[in-house]
Amino acid sequence: MESLTIIQKIFLSLFTGLIGLAIGSFLNVVALRLLSKEDFVQGRSKCPKCEHLIAWYDNIPVISYILLGGKCRKCNERISIQYPVVEIITAVLFVVLVGTFGISLKTLFLIFLTCNLIVITITDIREKYIFDINSIPIIPIGLAYNFFNIGQNSAITVNIFGISFNDVFISAVIAAIAGAVFFEVFSRIGLLLAGEYAFGTGDSILAAALGAWFGWKLLIIILILSFISQIFVGVPAVVYSMHKDKDYKSIWAMGTLLFSMVFTFLGRYFTAKEEPFIALAMILLSFVIAGISIYFILKRARERQSYTFLPFGPSMVLGAFIVMFFGANFIGYFH
Ligand SMILES: [Zn+2]
Fold first, then answer.
1. Which of 77, 139, 259, 266 is the most buried (most CB within 10 A)?
2. In angstroms, rounded to a whole number, what is the distance separating the alpha carbons of residues 123 and 1?
């Protein structure tokens, strides 16, 4: 990329962006036809309400949405904002991928992964469902990506039973298995505690797939990032559902759960002050308060038969994109 002039870079970015817009438009169609179980190879796009066939000039990414004012030309039904949003996000990701990794095999592989992750995000947000056709194929392709060291992340070769593998491939195999096991175990803990699976099978497959692409170190980073982003979206959503059910006791329990974090910080403060016993007492206290609060919230949720089920896939996808571009910064934590 360094060898290109500014003009060439601008042209390349524009070209990549236009391809991104067109493919983003296609990904919208793929996701929606998966959800409606339609055959997405055949048939032209039509308005979901009036079934009016959409003309090519009304099907131009982003531009048509703006020109039509977000409404169907025939029946004035609102067109989902999802269409232009997905198109723009796809275009931006394409431009950033080509800008970061150049015109390379690595970029091509990462574009394939990106397209699948976008469709997974759409279907998981809309119907809380990840289709196997999106998640399973990216496992072997991720393993192949690392087996042939396409990401050029491997430095060492390891010998196992006389066959040499690169270290990143071994890390990817471990991560694919560990990712699936982690979610299957957590899901069953949810079943034990709350009488409900905490995660869907789709989450296990997606974690395995991201492990296959990024290896175990970055998978840990993806999971940490996704749990953090889930808390930011999840806590307000859960409190809102408690408020709707007029379950003020649970809101109080949520408050004490957040309050327990104060003792965690106090614990850290006294650790720094080299007061180990006070520090330990504080951390224990925060665990007890948090434990009781969580137990109470789960018990009430079971009584109300109310579960705020948030899809976890989009959070993992967000984490995956962060490590895709900033992975090298995180790897340092493991040394
Ligand atoms: Zn219509």
1. 139
2. 35
Tally of domains in the chain: 2
| 48 Cα–ligand 1 center, Å | 7
The tens place of each residue's pLDDT in the chain, 335 residues long, gives 667 889 999 999 999 999 999 999 999 999 988 988 766 556 677 887 888 888 888 889 999 999 999 999 999 999 889 999 999 999 999 999 999 999 999 999 999 999 999 999 999 999 888 999 999 999 999 999 999 999 887 777 777 777 778 889 999 999 999 999 999 998 888 788 767 777 888 999 999 999 999 999 999 999 999 999 988 887 888 888 888 888 888 899 989 998 998 998 899 899 888 888 999 999 999 999 999 998 888 888 777 766 667 789 999 999 999 999 998 788 766 65
Distances 183 to 170, 198, 206, 309 between C-alpha atoms, Å: 20, 9, 10, 15
Final residue belonging to a domain, choices 103, 125, 153 = 103
Please count the other Cβ atoms lying within 10 Å of the Cβ belonging to residue 181. Answer: 13
Task: Look up the domain containing 91 and give its range.
Answer: 1-103
In a domain, 236, yes or no: no
Distance 314 CA to ligand 1 centre (A): 29
Using the mean position of ligand 1's atoms as its centre, give its distance from the Cα of residue 75 in Å: 4
Residue 334 lies in a domain: no
Cα 83 to middle of ligand 1, angstroms: 15
The CB-based long-range contact list for 274-277 (8 Å cut-off, 24+ gap) reads: none
> Within a domain: residue 164?
no
Query: CA-to-CA distance for 222 and 19, rounded, in angstroms?
Result: 28
Domain boundary residue, one of 53, 71, 103: 103
In a domain? residue 22: yes
CA 21 to ligand 1 centroid distance, Å: 23
